[in-house]
Amino acid sequence: MFYKETGQFKSRYKDELAAFPLFEDKIGIGILCVLTFLVIPMFGLPGLNYEFAMGAIMIPCMIFIIMTLGLNILLGFAGQISLGTGAFSGVGAYAFYKFITIFPDINIIIALVLSGLVSAVVGVIFGLPSLKIKGFYLIVATLAAQFFLTWAFIRVAWLYNYNASGAIEGPNKEMFGIIMIGPQSAGMTRYYFVLVTLIVLTWLASNVIRGRIGRSWMMIRDMDIAAELIGIRPLVAKLSAFAFSSFYIGIAGALMVFFWLGAAEAESFDINHSFLYLFMVIIGGLGSITGSYMGAIFVWVVPVLIKEIGKSAFGFDAFVMENFSTILLGAMIIIILILEPHGLARLWQIAKQKLRLWPFPY
Amino acid sequence: MEILHMIFIAPFLDMVALPDLFFQGLWDGFVGGTLYALLALGFVLIFKASGVFNFSQPILMVLAALALVSFYEMGINPWISVALVLLLMYALAFGVERVILRNLVNQDGNILFMSTIGLTFVIIGAAQWIFGGVPRSMIHAELGFPVGSSEWPMFGGAVYFEHIDISAVVLASSLIAILAVFFSKTKIGRGLRAVADDHQAALSVGISLNQIWVIVWFVAGIVALVGGLFWGARSDVSFALQIIGLKALPVLIIGGFTSVPGAIIGGLIIGLGEKIFEIYWGPMMGGSVEGWFAYVIALVFLLFKPQGLFGEKIIERV
């Protein structure tokens, strides 16, 4: 009744190609923008402490969405499985740290893009075996990246400027006269910066995926031999998927350390984080941008909320809740894989389909 | 020149200068290699039987070791604890077959693999909840395995053989031999190879897929128990063992995915290689190179010989 395409005529091809062809979708996106740009920064989330809502839910969620988008490009769209996401995000973070300490005057945006590019290069290098192999073999190749890079983050002292703690820390740094990162930066500025980055990257991803490169990834994923026969070059398609994905993951890693955590050591990029990002992609839905959003939010928010509720309402200690949410996460993966392999994104599609006919399904 | 000398000449001079240290390294690597081979065999068996790349094999090892220690700490006789752990592993195999595999029949390999990652997290959470996350020491002495070490004079120095390492090598290699015979000679083993070849054809000649799966997962549990026992004795029983267990993956790549002798040779290559590399080349790179050496070797294999040493020539390649 409220969500239908009836009566919405398109008179130009451009309208057909629009990302959100339906009027209702445009309203939805508009509401989402108002919420994230105005309402949430002003009032926080309902029922939660303002600082907690911004620092522990909103900012990390947006950063993880970027991370999930990156991994989804590789796994969901190009069909190449990776367990090195944590390490690639670390490459982005350490590169960003090196850029802002070597060139103190560099613009943050430029540093961010450059660190994404460094991460992309590393991603391509470790993606090279994907030209010969796939599936489980690739898991080991990306695990090599994971273990080698986290080792390098600890042992190569140049990466953290030989400081005694072995951690990378965000110095105070301003852009256009506003302190963006570092201990003195305001949570609000960091929130807006991450939000704008997320929107730009989402826009970029959705267009790349709808374009020539994105379609070549999907062809490779669906059937590589057929794709090669009709003129897709696997080398270009696969390596560009690795580069693109690592670019996103690198940017997300830099954002994670400097716009959220403030400081990080090699543990922030370990294999457990790679699993976490993989879970976000699986639960959200392979090969779906909406799914990346849902998966990242779900996997991050549900355990945080469970821990909070368990602590405040039932008085469970942190240890029990930690383990409970680990079990829940694992069980969710299995349930999702059995019941709905396309994840939350598919459920959302079904809901939209139902909504078109509601309340008169016949 | 300085650097080239450090990399290509100095380590070998060290090996010749102190042969006892070199042999000590070889022995340690050999023990590690045998245990890697055993774990890799756990992977190979499940992969051959069900096409599942079982990512939860390392955590099964942690679970078995933790459960063993915990049962003993509850005051149960150590051998009865072993029996209880075996029972637990059987129950787990049964549960995995019922809850996961049966529902995912005919799915893509990636999906099955990801479901075992989910299983890994369920086991991590449950094991930490029930048994606690504190590192503990293994009960090999209580189980009657010899402790202590004997010294063997050699080249003016001496090589130390930990007795538990000797029993590890003996037990692990006999288990490998038993498994190899079991899967090539017995009726169940033939059934298993049939399942590996073609699910439908196996079903049509009356082999029960479900039964086979329970059996292979149970065997993987036994492998996990033996692996956990000896890795736990070599270090502590903690969740860090999972990282050690994961090294069975590069072993598989080197040996070839579906080959039993490959798993053994690959295990020895990785075990010996990483020990020697750590001792002679590790210090100049900052140490702890054991964490990634195996993976980088596997990466090189993937680039130049993706089917591994003994793998089937036709791998799915692009």
Short précis:
The complex is a heterodimer of chains A (362) and B (318). Chain A has 362 residues and is mainly alpha-helical. Chain A is 71% helix and 3% strand.
Largest interface: A-B, 50 and 50 residues
Helix content of chain B: over 70%
Uncertain segments of chain B are none
Number of helices of chain A: 14
- In percent terms, what proportion of residues of chain B is strand? under 5%
- CA(first)-CA(last) distance of chain B: 41 Å
Coarse shape of chain A: globular
| Poorly predicted regions of chain A | none
The H-and-E topology of chain A, N to C, reads as HHHHHHEEEHHHHEHHHH
User: Which structural category do the helix and sheet elements of chain B fall into?
Assistant: mainly alpha
Helicity level of chain A: over 70%
Arrangement of strands in the largest sheet of chain A: 1-4
User: What's the overall geometry of chain B?
Assistant: globular
List keywords for this structure.
heterodimer, A: 362 residues, mainly alpha, two-stranded antiparallel ribbon, 4 strands, globular, B: 318 residues, 72% helix
